[in-house]
Amino acid sequence: MQILTVDSISKVYGSKKNGKQYQALKNITFQVNKGEFIGVMGSSGSGKTTLLNILGSIDKPTTGSFEMAGNEIALLGKKELANHRMKNIGFIFQDYNLLETMTLKENILLPLALQGASTEQMEEKLLPLITDLGIKEVANKYPYEVSGGEQQRAAACRALITKPKLILADEPTGNLDSKSSKDLLNLLTYINKEYNATILLVTHDVFAASYCEKILFIRDGEIYNELYSGENKKQFFDSIIDVMTVLGGERK
Amino acid sequence: MKLSTMALRNIQLNFKKYVMYFFSLTFCVFTAYSFLALIQNEEIKQALTYDDRYQALLTSFGVIIMIFVLFFLLSSNNSFIKARKKEISTYALFGMTNAKIGKLLFLETMIIGVATLIIGIASGVFFSKLIAMILLTITLETFTGNISFYIDPISILLTVILFLIIFSIMGLSGLRVISKFQLVDLFKGAKLSEGKTKGSYIGLLFSLTLIGTGYSLATMLDDPERISNFTLLILLLVILGTYMFFWVGLPKLIHLLKNKKDAYYQGDNLIATSFLSHRVITISSTMATIAVLSAVGTTAIATGYTLYSNVENNTYDTIGYDMYYYWADENVLDSVYDTFDMYGTTVTDQHTVTLYETSPKTNNVVGGNIHYNFGPDNYFRIYSLSEFWALTSIAKKDIPLITLEEGKALYARNYYSNDLEEAIIGHELHFSEKTLEITSIINEDIGTFGALHTIVVNDSDYESLRESGDISTRGSNAHVFNYSNALSSRDLNNDLTAVLRGNVGSYRTAYTHFSEAMETFGLVCFIGFFMSVVFILMTASLLYFRQVVAAEEEKHQFQMLRKIGMDSSTEKKVITKRLFPIFFIPLVIGIIHSIFAMKAADTMIFTQIISVDNSYPTVLAFSAVMYTVYAVIYGVFYYITKSQYRRIVR
């Protein structure tokens, strides 16, 4: 079942008048099926963050269309867009981006609170999730009072609590040491398998990408290559490195 | 890059944050210049009768305002520097010495300072004529003249010197703040956790008890003397209570709010409340100060305005007529009428009464700890009821129509205490053939005409007392007048007093009383206005600055919230709920304080000035006007801050 259909999206920054146009994305086309764990790779400046912003409906494409959960996103109004983000998309950011002013529990409940869910509903959804991800004990603490791993899991809970159609992870391992990276990626894999969540991971980290089932490589705003993980993880890892070397080497 | 270019660029970059501060500082310069120029304005001195009092009032309040401005600038300057800690530490990291950073900040202060001086003084000069006209219009009922435009070099010089001193002190204290910075703090990162507290029930209750005690003292004490003895205690209780409330009480209230899960877990409430509870510690002192200053400001302006608005009523309450005189020479009445004719004045009421007195045997009255000497040395002014009615009916104030049965007497006196009232009711006056009992007392001095005590008796009693020879007269008359343009013609009043002075035993004109009161209370109003505006501007600009700095720190949180799916209407709600309490709570507490302060002021002053049975509602009605004005100005700052906050987090 297709969750996301992206049809020849382009994004141009700057206006035609002053001639300083910059094409961030060119004719991107791909599909995402339910339960997939997809990686988007590219070096900095390749346009992957732009793509993520468009998929997250924070930014709009210049041309092209994409459909998600049966909605043509370009046609949605501001209010509907916010609603769409709230219902269909879960975000996991670099640095987790938990609100320092709220306890973990409040952070996790935030999307539900914004939807205007009732208190019982919230508690009902919250409990199994935090129990499963092992942060029940620290739920009433503030982010700066708990470990990085616990913050990660709280951020994951927040992304999961609305049962979104798609989870977007933006360089989640960007600031982490290898141990924490591994924990987070295992966590994402766990979510992917156990909750059948569809995850789109944007990264430039080869190690992080090797956890995905499928990888899209972006160069200069275009899809350059696609890779599928086979049985052999080591081989997958090596082929990612090969592609990345080519990508990096050919940059002007 | 030179230091001066750097300083200029810093100001440019931080302009949005400084703009309010700049504005309020400019207004301070404007106020200082205006006051100095007004003090030295010869034309005003000539126009005002009581010019020494005018100068003394302006000078002393000018000094008070300037001292406040100095302290406020010092504290806000320090918080500006602290807000730039990161930037300053970066300078230090790249090898700038503290002295050089100090010099940079000093330069910035001076550039801003000189700019405010120029704009402030320029607008002071530009509006000087207007300000002088406003002052004269509110203090002089009859002012129709013109004031010439003037530039006062001495005032300019004094203002410049005054503010250069203030700016230098600011620069020095800034240096002290910098020297306390530790470079290592830079690397610790600016975590949002500014220390949070759950507050405490005991603190909340204690602060409310303190404020409540102060309030009840202010309302319960109904004796002017006792309340002025307790003023300091009331002030201490309330101020301490206010600070306590903001330090520990408010955090507790917010914490309680958080426990109401159903309301708290609404998206906007959740975000706004948690933001607020994290900020409340750092801003509690500012909020408390603002509450106290708002109380002072609103009380000052409300008092001034109430007094000012009641000058005319008070004049007639005190004097009763447009003019009266007694113990006059024969020819005075003719001269008075000649003067009226000269000005084309119509006499609307005129009454002449022969003054009678009586000295019954009676005991002294002890009311409280005051002895009222009723002995034979003190005579009573005595009126028959009908004569008293004749006098009171043309008086320009409301005097209840009294009736008296035979054998009873009414005692009239201006200002009596409750103790005296209790003691004197039932007191007996022994005349040669008769004994009358004082059965009522009124707060009235009409008809006194030089006597200490006045009694009014029933007409038939009056006749029999006259027959028995208890009443005597020295053959002198008292004349009371009401006439047109009584309060508007200064020349008429001057000529009338010239006729009366020296030729009558005593006289009073409404005009003299009225113009004196107008000058004093008009000036109080004028100063109160400037003081309130300085207070509002200073405190509101500090709040603005704090919120703008906070907005920059909260910016990325808003970005994140938007990604989660916060729509723009929720965002608006969050910002409103986040900012509104910070502005609203201090204002409301300040106004509540002021309402109780007005009650104390009512006991001390207004009861004697406003002659209504219960003057407090009247006082509150007049105060409400000023509270509204204050709240509206304050509200404008709230909206400016809100729109700026919204712009930053977008």
Overview of the molecule:
The complex is a heterodimer of chains A (252) and B (650). By secondary structure, chain A is α/β, with parallel strands linked by helices. Helix content of chain A is 38%, strand content 25%. A 6-stranded mixed β-sheet of chain A has the order 6-7-8-3-9-10, sandwiched between helices. Chain A has helices at 48-55, 78-88, 104-115, 119-132, 148-160, 178-194, 206-209, 233-249, and strands spanning 2-13, 22-33, 37-41, 63-68, 71-72, 89-92, 166-170, 199-203, 214-219, 222-228. Chain A has a single domain (2-99, 147-247), classed as P-loop containing nucleotide triphosphate hydrolases (Rossmann fold), CATH 3.40.50. Chain A is globular, with a radius of gyration of 19 Å. With 650 residues, chain B is of the alpha+beta class. Helices cover 69% and strands 11% of the residues of chain B. Chain B is built from 21 helices and 11 strands. Chain B has helices spanning 3-13, 15-40, 42-47, 51-83, 85-93, 98-139, 153-180, 185-188, 201-220, 224-259, 261-264, 267-309, 311-319, 332-342, 385-393, 418-424, 459-467, 490-500, 510-564, 568-609, 615-649, and strands at 323-328, 347-358, 365-367, 370-372, 380-384, 408-413, 428-430, 435-443, 453-457, 471-483, 504-509. In chain B, the strands form 2 sheets. A 9-stranded mixed β-sheet of chain B has the order 7-8-6-9-5-2-10-1-11. In chain B, α2 (15-40) runs antiparallel to α19 (510-564), α4 (51-83) packs parallel to α19 and α20 runs antiparallel to α21. Classes of the chains: A alpha/beta (252), B alpha+beta (650). Chain A binds chain B through residues 56, 58, 78-79, 82-87, 89, 91, 93, 97, 99-102, 106, 109-119, 122, 142, 144, 158, and chain B through 191-193, 261-262, 265-267, 270-271, 274-275, 277-278, 556-557, 560-570.
Write the layout of secondary structure elements.
The complex is a heterodimer of chains A (252) and B (650).
Chain A: E1 2-13, E2 22-33, E3 37-41, H1 48-55, E4 63-68, E5 71-72, H2 78-88, E6 89-92, H3 104-115, H4 119-132, H5 148-160, E7 166-170, H6 178-194, E8 199-203, H7 206-209, E9 214-219, E10 222-228, H8 233-249
Parallel strand pairs in A: 3-8, 3-9, 6-7, 7-8
Antiparallel strand pairs in A: 1-2, 1-4, 4-5, 9-10
Helix pairs in contact in A: 3-5, 5-6
Chain B: H1 3-13, H2 15-40, H3 42-47, H4 51-83, H5 85-93, H6 98-139, H7 153-180, H8 185-188, H9 201-220, H10 224-259, H11 261-264, H12 267-309, H13 311-319, E1 323-328, H14 332-342, E2 347-358, E3 365-367, E4 370-372, E5 380-384, H15 385-393, E6 408-413, H16 418-424, E7 428-430, E8 435-443, E9 453-457, H17 459-467, E10 471-483, H18 490-500, E11 504-509, H19 510-564, H20 568-609, H21 615-649
Parallel strand pairs in B: 5-9, 6-8
Antiparallel strand pairs in B: 1-10, 1-11, 2-5, 2-10, 3-4, 6-9, 7-8
